[in-house]
Amino acid sequence: MDIDMDMKGNMKSFVLILGLVIGFGVSAFSQDVAAIEDSLSRYYKILAASKNDALSDSTSQKMRNLFIQSFSFPETFIYPFEKLNMSRITSSDGRVRLFNWNQPKQDGTYKYYCFVLNRDIKTGAYEWFELVDNQKEVDKIENKILNADKWMGALYYEIIPLSTDKKNNSYVVLGWDGKDDLTTRKMVDILEFSGSKVRLGAAIFKTELGSQKRLIYEYSNDISMSIKFYQKKKCIVMDHLAPKNPMMTGVYADYGPDGTYDLYQLEKGKFELHEKIDISEFAEDDERPYVDPRTRRRRR
User: Fold this and answer.
1) Residue 230 CB partners (closer than 8 Å, separation 6+)
2) Where are the domains of the chain?
3) What is the Cα–Cα distance from 204 to 68, expressed in whole angstroms?
4) What's the CA angle centered on 254, arms 249 and 258, to 5 degrees?
5) CB neighbours of 84 closer than 8 A, spacing ≥ 6?
6) 111 near 105, Cβ under 8 Å?
7) Going residue by residue through the chain (300 aa), what tens digit of pLDDT does each one get?
8) How many helices (H) and strands (E) does the chain have?
9) Contact assessment for residue 157 and residue 293, using Cβ atoms and an 8 Å cutoff
10) Beta pairing partners, 131
11) DSSP 3-state of 101
């Protein structure tokens, strides 16, 4: 069954009552969402195989419209979407869910799509937002607050509540960006909800260069970099990047892990930098490997 529709607008929210689903078992709603999932899965396979930007654009647009259609059903927040081989992650507190995919382009860059669902635990209602990828190269992006319609596109692979407070509205998100044919980026950002709006960035990272609203790391496509959040220790651990040749400082295609590790520890609402830490205590704790999407579609 192919379900498609024409929708417009960069960000919309629609409140849905998940409680309606309880007691009905497998409802007609679930059948509709399952049909949407089948269509999404088919389009995603077309996107993965596409070697034409126009086809990729139209396919992603069809996927976008289908997701928007799915948000008219209460159970979409909890529906597993197991047929979709794309980023669909939920925060550990059960309040935020992300649907996120990357569209490879023929020039070696990527375009990103992301929907953010924010659920009220008490009522089961959720609202949704669309992040629009249009902030690729912005001066001093590390220190800018980004709104939903001015998002620095990324493929998120983890979302973590910033606190256990029931009123928490801030989340750490870890993301990947296949910047171009030479370099890759990873980022640590803050996703926040304020009223009926969502934004990214918060001045809580205390770096060697001063306070920053997000962390961005750029390095050679030939290597991989690890950034992981350790829930029990409330910290972020990452490879320390450096150029192979000191003469190449600032040329990120020459950057990669130098064998040391840095840590950002959450202390009184701020992430404090600790350089060259002892990594042994993290070696077997809370391991969650992340597969770089580029390895599945490396350009020649």
Assistant:
1) 236, 237, 282, 285, 286
2) 16-285
3) 33
4) 85
5) 37, 40, 41, 44
6) yes
7) 444 444 434 444 444 444 444 334 445 457 899 999 999 999 999 999 999 999 999 999 999 999 999 999 989 999 999 999 999 999 999 999 999 999 999 999 999 999 999 999 889 899 999 999 986 666 789 999 999 999 999 999 999 999 988 888 999 999 999 999 999 999 999 999 988 899 999 999 999 989 999 999 999 999 999 999 998 899 999 999 999 999 999 999 999 999 999 999 999 999 999 999 988 877 665 554 444 566 544 333
8) 2, 17
9) no
10) 114
11) strand
The 8-class DSSP code of residue 123 comes to: T
- What are the Cα distances from residue 74, in Å, to 4, 27, 63, 79, 298? 19, 11, 19, 9, 38
Residues in the chain: 300
Lookup result for tokens 């927040």: 77
Tokens 């029990």 belong to: 232
* Global pTM value: 0.85
Edge-to-edge strand ranges of the sheet holding 270-274: 210-212, 205-207, 270-274, 255-267, 235-243, 227-230
What stretch of H or E contains 247? none
